[in-house]
Amino acid sequence: MSQIGDAAATDRHWRSGALGGLVAGVAMGVVLHGALGLMPTIGALVGVETVLAGWAVHLFNSTLFGVLFVAVFDRAFFDDLRADVGGCLSLGVLHSALLGMITGGLLLPTAIALEGATSLPIPTLPVPGLTAGFEFGAIIAVAHLIYGLVLGRVFAAFTLAEGAVGWLPFDPVDR
């Protein structure tokens, strides 16, 4: 591939990662807010405890994490995995699992401490008590899984010819 072709592919990968992160963030956010009502809590991390602020913070971070996906996995070491849709899905899931551990285990507790809170307000689901913490964790895990699958699929759709989605009105390799 020529230098110009390499630059165009690299640019397409960065844009695909950002768009994939944004779309995946919407899908994940629907789960987080629909099942747990977490958007005000996410907004509170920047001092504005509203649904709108929560969505803004969440989508901004989701887009950045999509770009981080490209920074980490757009390397020769991962070429075989990025060569097909299944590999892109696998990388997306790996990426979101790592993000879940880092954000949930380090960044979120740090942000909560900086805001002066002593714990994350875990909403109780249909059965309060012992199962609420488990249900909360399970929903967070499912939300991250959805993020990874959507990120990987969008990335594949915009970077692989065979990853194209039929209803999109363009050819992936021509972008």
**Low-confidence parts:** none
So what's the oligomer here? single chain
Order of helices and strands: HHHHH
Structural class: mainly alpha
Q: Number of DSSP helices?
A: 5
Integer average pLDDT: 83
| Spatial gap, N to C terminus | 16 Å
Strand percentage lies at under 5%
Radius of gyration: 18 Å
| Helix fraction bin | over 70%
Biggest sheet layout: none
Number of strands: 0
Overall morphology: elongated
Summarize the structure.
Helices cover 70% and strands 0% of the residues. The protein is built from five helices and no strands.
What layout of secondary structure does this protein have?
Blueprint: H1 3-36, H2 39-44, H3 51-73, H4 85-114, H5 130-159
Helix pairs in contact: 1-3, 1-5, 4-5
Description:
The chain is mostly helical and 175 residues long. The chain contains five helices and no strands. The radius of gyration is 18 Å and the shape is elongated.
What keyword list fits this structure?
single chain, 175 residues, mainly alpha, 5 helices, 0% strand, elongated
